[in-house]
Design the sequence.
């Protein structure tokens, strides 16, 4: 997701001040066959869990996100990354629902990842951290949800990688999920999505400061990470939104400079985005999380996607959302999910929203998105007889 | 353009063995106000110039192209980059036309560029080479065309940056051009096009081996150039063609490796493309040529594009071609050109070809493209009373 969006969305009612939380578990088994021992999950919650523990909604974050989805940390003037959607009266209405968001394993924002200390070596894991999958991320979230005493989530949702985790939840734990709202997501990474990630990884790994992942005592591979982020950032926007936002406007000059300093506003914007990102994100985590994305294939690589959904309970409900100008996770990928669900007779609504903002559209203030999610959750709660505040 | 295409297109009649040529000029003035003294233009020609010197067609190359557009150099088994379109009976029919292609200034394939020796220092220019524009490239080509004794080109054509040069010809030398065939081109680089180029430049400039452009005595910034090429390469393809070509096929393995070696065929393909490119291309040239692309704005940044075409002769003809799946130079950019031409009453045909191959489509064998170009040139020759072989 784009940093610039977060600061623009601090409007309307908010859950207010929130505190980071975390919980440790002795062990997590991974798809690779390895185990993480121990494992920490950083998370936040917003709203109140009702007495029946039946009004919980899990939000999963995207590549560069974290557990801080809404509200403000003490002293911060910047809200969580989905402040537009989570709060009193918002799409994920914290007056009615208990909203949970956790940092993925492999991340760098509190959950166990490559920057954590390996008990075996006493130093940061670095590349010694096992490769994790979206399945592993969700398995870790299940530990957290069990820990919170929640038997069934009323809904799981997220955009981009968050949507992929939400889909994974329905397949991995069909009895623990009542509904799912995957947004701007896919059931499997396409070769173009893999290709952009691979170039980003190579930019990091080509930076001599990366040092095979062992850089925590010294300078970090900021140049490589910035290039990776800039590639990603372009893919989150759209041709149309970039033309509207930047056009060919020059940066602080009357004419082009006939040199290799920056001439255009879009150049300085992108460089700034790359630079800011290196201050808040870890290069190894970028490698691990993009790899998890590329590995994601809900069908397990065998047979049609329809098979993957065969064991879903008949009363599970989906709201699948895509954005018209999202060329990184194009609407056809969401439609593919919808067709596979319908093929299993699953209750599924599909919404393709007109937007010029590309993949990032899911992070922007959007009244239609808010209304659709609010009503979908309301109906789901009614269907399951959930008592709301 | 993509290297893989060139080796796949060695079919059908060919101009056969061709020899590189070059010519020196004492001086070339540049848009920046600087001068190049002296300047060498590397070029090739195919077919015969008729007695009236009226059957010449100039082909301009794309970012990574060169003067070797057709036929074979002695001992080579790989033809020129537009072998599909240039040759006996082909779109640019060498039985009828005299076809010229030259390496752009700033290039690294024989024309004066950053790898050339600066007379002032006695060493390679490196970053001491002046920044050049598409206008400068065309000004250099005009010297060559004058040198060949050709007063008026029957046509100028090219794909991508080649199409941009073709358009520039019509505006800079309207009396020296009878017709123009810009393919998969634009009248100005969009912010998205600039953004992808800027990230590529930053990847090169972040490579410590780049050394501020001064690397000709030592190791070249191959890692940075490979990353830049890989970014470019993805943008030349399409989501659809990548799915058809690679899908999620693994590379020499039964299952994913749970490590950071390459898992997917698309990854090894891209890395190979990046690596191969570093063997044939210069990193500084990549900087200069992408900068020229980003500077390109036929309207000069003032007023509507229609103004730029106001002084075209009434008998100039255009065939503007775009490809449906080209998301880097999308059809709307070609339509923009067409509208501005029609607004001036210029004879202009527009062809949007259905293709799944993205921007690279212009390099692929395409019977419709061949037929359209052949007939357009035939009609243009008739209109101008040109005697053909």
Sequence:
């Amino acid at each position: 997701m784009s940093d610039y969006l977060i600061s623009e969305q601090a409007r309307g009612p908010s859950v207010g001040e929130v505190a980071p939380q975390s919980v440790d578990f002795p062990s997590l088994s991974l798809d690779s066959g390895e185990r993480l021992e121990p494992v920490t999950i950083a998370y936040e919650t917003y709203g109140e869990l009702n007495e029946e523990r039946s009004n919980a909604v899990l939000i999963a974050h995207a590549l560069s996100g974290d557990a801080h989805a809404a509200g403000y940390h003490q002293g911060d003037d910047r809200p969580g990354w989905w402040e537009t959607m989570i709060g009193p009266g918002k799409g994920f209405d914290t007056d009615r629902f208990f909203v949970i968001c956790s940092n993925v394993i492999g991340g760098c924002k509190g959950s166990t990842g490559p920057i954590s200390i390996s008990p075996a070596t006493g130093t940061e894991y670095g590349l010694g951290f096992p490769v994790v999958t979206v399945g592993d991320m969700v398995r870790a979230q299940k530990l957290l949800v069990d820990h919170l005493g929640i038997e069934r989530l009323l809904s799981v949702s997220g955009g981009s990688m968050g949507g992929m985790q939400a889909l994974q939840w329905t397949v991995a734990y069909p009895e623990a999920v009542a509904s799912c709202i995957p947004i701007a997501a896919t059931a499997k990474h396409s070769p173009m999505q893999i290709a952009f990630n691979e170039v980003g990884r190579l930019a990091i790994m080509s930076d001599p400061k990366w040092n095979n992942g062992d850089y925590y005592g010294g300078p970090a591979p900021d140049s490589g990470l910035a290039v990776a982020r800039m590639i990603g950032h372009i893919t989150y926007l759209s041709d149309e939104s970039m033309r509207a936002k930047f056009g060919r406007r020059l940066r602080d000059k009357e004419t082009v400079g006939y040199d290799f300093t920056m001439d255009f506003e879009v150049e300085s914007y992108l460089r700034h985005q790359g630079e800011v990102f290196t201050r808040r994100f870890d290069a190894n985590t970028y490698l691990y999380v993009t790899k998890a994305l590329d590995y994601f294939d809900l069908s397990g690589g065998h047979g049609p996607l329809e098979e993957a959904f065969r064991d879903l309970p008949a009363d599970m409900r989906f709201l699948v959302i895509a954005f018209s100008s999202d060329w990184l996770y194009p609407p056809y990928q969401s439609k593919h999910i919808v067709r596979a669900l319908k093929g299993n007779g699953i209750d599924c609504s599909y919404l393709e929203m007109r937007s010029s903002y590309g993949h990032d559209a899911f992070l922007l203030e959007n009244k239609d998105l808010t209304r659709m999610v609010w009503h979908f959750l309301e109906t789901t709660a009614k269907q399951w007889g959930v008592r709301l505040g």
About this structure: The first strand of chain B starts at residue 21 and ends at 25.
